[in-house]
Every structure is written in structure tokens, then in C-alpha cells.
Amino acid sequence: MTYFRFLANLLRTPSIIIVAIASVLFAVNIASASVSNTYSSPAVEATLVTAVDGIAPGSKTFSAGLHLKLGEGWKTYWRSPGEVGFPPEIDWSKSRNIANVEILWPAPERFTAFGIENFGYQDEVLFPLQVSLNQEGPPIEFLVDVKLLVCSKICVPEEFTLQVPLAIDITRDEISSAQIAEYLAKVPSEGNLTYANAFISRNQTELVFEAHSEVPFAAPDLFPELGVGTALGKPDIRLSGDGTRLWAALPILSVDSDNYQMPIVTLTDGPHRALTVSPEIVNDAPTPPYALAQNLPALNELVWIAVVAILGGLILNAMPCVLPVLSIKVSSVLKAEGRSKAQIRIGFLFSALGVMVFMWTLAAVLFALKFIGYNVGWGLQFQNPAFVFAMFVVLSLFAGNLFGLFDIRLPAPLSRRLAVNGSGQGYAADFFTGLFGAILATPCSAPFLGTAIAFALAGRGLDILVVFTALGLGLSLPYLIFAAFPNMVALLPKPGRWMALLKSVMGILLTGTAVWLLYVLLGLSGVHMATLAFSGTALILIFVTRNWLRTAAFASIVLILGISGMPLVQKAEQRSEKIAWTQFERGEIAQQISQGNTVFVDVTADWCLTCKANKALILERDPVLSHLNSSDVVAMQADWTQPDKRIGDFLESHGRFAIPFNAVFGPSAPDGIVLPEILSVDGVLDAMKQAGLAEN
């Protein structure tokens, strides 16, 4: 019907109908005015564009796009957003004559928000839309409701409606067509690879991906998807020498079993190469290619980190947690009395050798665990109940020896091998003094230690060997000084009754250490394992003792300390829980910051003595205590007493492999301010002030 025929018919229409039609047209105009094809806010400007101004006769499809211009510093998310966030959602159900809308996703980029890996877009992006019609031709009202999350230092949900009316028209919108074509070219294509394999660990904590391409990779990145609700961490990507083989390992941070799917991997390699593959699942993890020479640290960097490691090991001797080790070190000095200078020198060298043997063994174990994909770190042997069990038994025997319950003697063949000039005076005790001293020092952390450990465990086997050798040299430096200057032993008082008193004091210290290990074992494996450890040790003492009365007294003391000490410790901890700790959830950090709160994260463990000192001396005392309990601060605690890959991955993401670890996150520090191992009141308060400065 032509416009003039419509007008003529309208003139013959009764006035009541004219008024009704006019009202409808007015309402339609008002509705059209309230919904347009653009939306604007301080964070994002959104436009719904179409490649055509209308639908050509006979066509049942057309191309469109949701064009987003993000404000400076603002980002939005990909279809798989990472650990936090959600992708854009488009609802076209209110459209007219629209059957389906397929969203195409341009290749994302990786960015870090709140210390968490996320995938998405910044500055500008257009999501191409492939639109299908119910029937050919108009009337068509293309209307979409959009939900969008945009994040900067805070996250803001955006909801808006965009609309484009389309009639019969064959005219193209050249500008919009070019924009849509530009971003269609950025949508990953089907993978053109020689092969692509993926391995998922049995406990679903790691994904290992391997691919080969005839076109070498230059700077690839990897975006795997395992279904909605599954998040992966930052990939460790390695290339073969010619760049054609790619290997990557990614920690799986969380899994939603209800939405779990076989992996789909999107690979990007610069702005002009993006592809998506569905890798074949394999039963064995692919091995990484040999590291490229250009990835190796410079020699001067390795030398400097070795110096830092020596300083860290030396300072470890003076840490508050060195008390359990003190009696062992003092005993080594006492045993030097009455020896010749040569014997003194060799004895202290054997003590230093005990330290070095432990450090080299620890380095080898950590390298092996790191190679097969486990979280590694300083002091993690105390997460192993069998290790703690054995240490409790050994230290209890050492304490019993100091109290005179029995003498520790080696088998004759081994004693002869370690004898000095056939005298029968061996150095086994010196060696084990150094060995156990090093073992008991590892629950502690010190300045410089974290830096050195992080460098080692993030590098190659050579880096681990150099750093742990340097740590051992620093920790054994007191022994080496006595070895270099054996005359220093002459400065000790002459033998007398004081030595018996000192041995008793050292026995008490070792007994206290054994009780502490029993407490750690209780937290690791429960009361049954702790009871088994105590009972088994008591039986050993009874079997080897030469004085049943003393043994009974010693066992009674340990039992009383154990039975009465555990409730006292638990009550003390309950009383000392002055801080309203919440359980560690990595994704919750971002949620709290988006609400304007500051988050204080404390990674601790029952076996970490430095953690206990920080808590008692700094965190649970004012003015820090009142700040942690304020309404705009969330105190979040991660307990690493037992192995927890989530916590290990969180530490590794911040370049740390040892605890204590404390960091402050906030609106002004979304990536976190990492605090030193040894906390101070001013350091904690300054970090909280910096992190909590909001933009206003």
C-alpha cells in the first residue's frame, strides 16, 4: 500500500479510530526513542551495528556486531573469562522475526586483574553476530538485551538494551561492514596443526598441551577451555629450538564437574595468527623440549643470586625459629673440647658437610618433584606425616641421650670408617649434628631467603643446585668459622659441672622441639598417628635404656607435655584468634576488591615457626589488629600445613615458594603488595593504607 492510498483511507476512517491509531503511533515513537542502537557509560560505549541497512528480498540471514569502546584501563571478558568474571551475554528473545543469533568471539588477550589470570579485551572490540530470520523479509526489529562485566580497579556490571529496525533494502553500510570484517578476521580458525595432544592429570590439577606446526611459533599464548566454571592458571610455555613444537603446562585451579567438557584450546601467536583445536587426549604427559639458550640467566645474575642465598642462609642462623637448632649447634661446640686442632677442624667440617648433604638432597628432591609437575617450596617436607613422624622419633632419642638415658653408638664397622687415626673417635655425630640442624631450620624463612628460593625453583636444575649450595654455605658458616679458627674453642669455659647443667638445658630444648613436632603431626594426621608416634618412641627408649627409672621419668614428662600441652595450645590458639579470619578463596579476592574492600592474605602452616612469630608479635597486636578487624578489611588465611595445590599455585603466581607469605590487595593495589618474610607494624600498616586508597 502506497503512502497516498494509506492517507486517503485514513481520511475516510472515523475519528475515534484515527485517535486510536495516532495514540499507537505516538507510543511506538516514544518506545523507539527510549531504545536506540547506542549505549554509553564512563566505562564503556556500546553500539549495535549491522552490515546492511535492510534485508534483501529472499534473504534469511544478515551480519551484525556488538561494538564496544572501553574506557582507559577498563577491560571486559572472553567467552571463557578465566578465574573470575563472566562473558558478555546477549538476549535477542524480544526481537521480531529473529530465529537465532550466533556470537563469534575474536581471539582474546591475557591480562592480570587482582593477581589473577583473566582472558578478554581492552580498548576496543567488536563481537561479530550471525543473525538468522524466522521468515524472509521484514518486519524485523533486531533488539538485544546485553549484560556485560567491565573491570578496572573495580568491576562494574553493565546492563542495557540496543535496537536496530530493518526494512527491505539492498544497501550496505560500508563502515559497519568493514568493522565486522576486521573482527571476523580475528576469530580463531580451525587449527591447522600437524598434531595436538593434551594430558589431564588424574586428580584434575594440571593440563599439559603439546602441538606441532609446520609454521614456527614466535610468541604463542594458550587459552584452554574445560567447561563453564573451570579455571586455569598461567601457562608455562616452551618451544623447541626451531619453534615448530610447542609444549605448555597449566595448573587447573578449579573444576565444575557438572559442566566439565573435553578440552578446547585456542592458540594465539601475535595479532595475526589465532586458531582453535580439539586436542587428542593422551595417557602420558608429554615431556617439555630442551630449554633454549637465550632463556638462560646471565652468569653475573647467577653469581649475585648465589651471594643473596649465602646471606639468606647466614641470617637463618639468627632467626627466632633457630631455638630448636640451638642445642644441636651448642653440642657440636662442646664435643670439640679435648680434641686436637686437627680433630676440631675436621669435626666442624663434617658438621658443615651434614648441612651441605641435606641441602643437596633437598635440591635433588625438589628438582625431581618440579620436573614431574608438583608444587615445590621451602620446608614442604614438614607437610609429609612420615617425615615428621621420623623426626619426632629421632629428636626424642637425641633428647634422651642428652638426659643420660643411653649413649648413641654407631655399628663398629661404620665407626671405624669414620675414625680419626684409628683412635675410634669418629665424626658421625658431627655430621648428623649439621644434618639435623639444617633439617630443623627449614620451617623458617628469612630476608633474602625467599628471593633466592624463588629464583631457584623458577629456573633450571643448575639454578637449583647453585642456590641450594649457597644456602648451605650460609647456614653452615658458623661451623666453617670454627673449622678455620679452631683456637676459638679455647675461649669456652673449662669442663665442669656447668657442662652437665647445659646438657640438661639442651635436652629440655630438644624435648620441646619433639613436642612441637608431635603437635605438627597431630595437625597433619590426627590423634591416632600422634599417639602411635609417642608410644613407639617410648617403647624404643625402654628397649635401649640403661636406667629404667630415668626413662619412665622422661617418658612421663613428654607425655604430660603432650597431653596437657595440646589442649593448652588449642585453647591459646582459640583465645588468640582475635582476628576474624575467613577461609582462603582466590576468586573471592577480586569480589571483595570490587566492593571497595581491602584484603589481607596470610599463608601460614602449623610447622612454620616464622609464621607463628609474625602472628604473635605483629598481627595480633594493636594497631595492626584493629585494622585487620575493621569493616572494610577482609582478613583471609590460607593454611598450608597439608599440601594444597591451590595455595601452591597462588604462591607461585607471586614468584614465591616459601612461607610466611603475606600480601595486601585493595582498590589501589589489585595485583597485591607483597610483604617481607619478617613483618613489621609500619610495613603492614603502610601496605594496607596504599592498597585501600580508593579513587575519589
The gross shape turns out to be elongated
Q: What's the number of helices?
A: 20
Residue stretches low in confidence (pLDDT < 50, at least 5 long) are: 1-34, 291-296, 414-425, 571-575
Strand content: 15-25%
Largest sheet, strands/sense/barrel: 6 strands, mixed
Structural class: alpha+beta
Q: Tell me the helix content.
A: 40-55%
Number of domains: 4
Q: How many E strands?
A: 27
Instruction: Please tell me how large the radius of gyration is.
Output: 34 Å
Query: Ends: how far apart?
Result: 59 Å
pLDDT averaged residue by residue: 76
What is the oligomeric state here?
single chain
List keywords for this structure.
alpha+beta, six-stranded mixed β-sheet, Immunoglobulin-like, 696 residues, 20 helices, 42% helix, elongated, 24% strand, 4 domains
Structure overview:
The chain has 696 residues and is an alpha+beta fold. The protein has four domains: 35-187, Immunoglobulin-like (Sandwich); 192-293, Immunoglobulin-like (Sandwich), CATH 2.60.40; 296-576, no CATH class; 582-691, Glutaredoxin. 42% of the residues lie in helices and 24% in strands. The chain contains 20 helices and 27 strands. Strands 14, 15, 17, 18, 19 and 22 form a six-stranded mixed beta sheet that branches. It has a five-stranded antiparallel beta sheet with strand order 1-2-4-10-7. A five-stranded mixed beta sheet has the order 23-25-24-26-27, sandwiched between helices. Strand 11 (140-151) and strand 12 form a beta hairpin. The chain is elongated, with a radius of gyration of 34 Å. The two termini are 59 Å apart.
